[in-house]
Design brief:
The protein is mainly α. Helix 5 crosses helix 7. Helix content is 41%, strand content 0%.
């Protein structure tokens, strides 16, 4: 039988690291985490922005149980029975997003919906850690703050990696092609990785003022030779011929 885990296991681990002297292994065993992950929490490299969840105030541990664990590193913490914690280890939710970045999620959802309409709600949910109702509200422009949301790349916001976004887009386009959908030129370009697209040479474009001259090539044509001859004075001043007689 699987061990029941405390509610908000990672937040509980943050509290235990901040408020007790029990070992990383004891915290890891109690919260269902890896010992190195608990060490990362203690060092501030993992769960940045996660607020600690007090297991004593929330009836998951007693102070006596913590005292025993602090006195004996081999003691395993025992979770108080809490019906709400049953099956916690089986719970699978969207990716955790730090509190400091949660306000950026609507902007990233709007960006994905606008520039990658081929992505499903499930893919967007996994990329930025949101819920399908929120995505649907932004798709349908019924979100309460839709008029103030500006689309921002989730990669720039740090909500997902570029490789994760590229993989999701390729998977969505491959599924569409398999179902018989025809990809547009823009969708085909999305299949190219970011590194490849940044390394491509820019295609020559015809200036806007030359519209209608598409049949002409942009190759270097020889320029006409400049006439360097100097006109004589009569030609320059265009003086009339003096055909009359001189007066006496």
């Amino acid at each position: 039988m699987a061990q029941n885990l405390p509610i908000m296991a990672k937040a509980t681990a943050v509290w235990l690291c901040d408020n007790t002297t029990i070992t990383f292994k004891q915290v890891a065993d109690f919260c269902g985490l890896h010992e190195l992950e608990v060490q990362g929490i203690a060092d501030g490299d993992v769960a940045t922005g996660v607020k600690g969840f007090d297991p004593i105030a929330n009836k998951q541990l007693t102070q006596e149980e913590i005292d025993k664990a602090e006195a004996d590193p081999s003691h395993k913490l025992k979770l108080l029975y809490n019906p709400a914690s049953a099956g916690e280890e089986k719970r699978r939710g969207p990716r955790y997003t730090p509190l400091s970045k949660r306000q950026d999620r609507p902007a990233s959802i709007y960006w994905l919906v606008k520039f990658h309409p081929e992505l499903s709600d499930g893919q967007i949910s996994k990329l930025v850690g949101t819920t399908k109702p929120t995505i649907q509200a932004i798709r349908e422009r019924t979100h309460w703050n839709i008029n103030n949301i500006e689309p921002i790349d989730p990669v720039a916001l740090g909500l997902c990696k570029q490789s994760e976004l590229d993989a999701a887009v390729q998977k969505a386009n491959a599924k569409k092609a398999k179902e018989g959908g025809v990809m547009s030129d823009d969708e085909r370009r999305k299949l190219v990785s970011t590194e490849q697209s940044l390394g491509m040479d820019a295609e020559p474009k015809i200036p806007a003022g030359m519209a209608g001259l598409e049949t002409f090539t942009l190759s270097d044509a020889p320029e006409p030779e400049e006439d360097t001859s100097v006109p004589d004075a009569d030609t320059f001043f265009n003086l009339p011929d003096d055909d009359g007689d001189d007066e006496d």
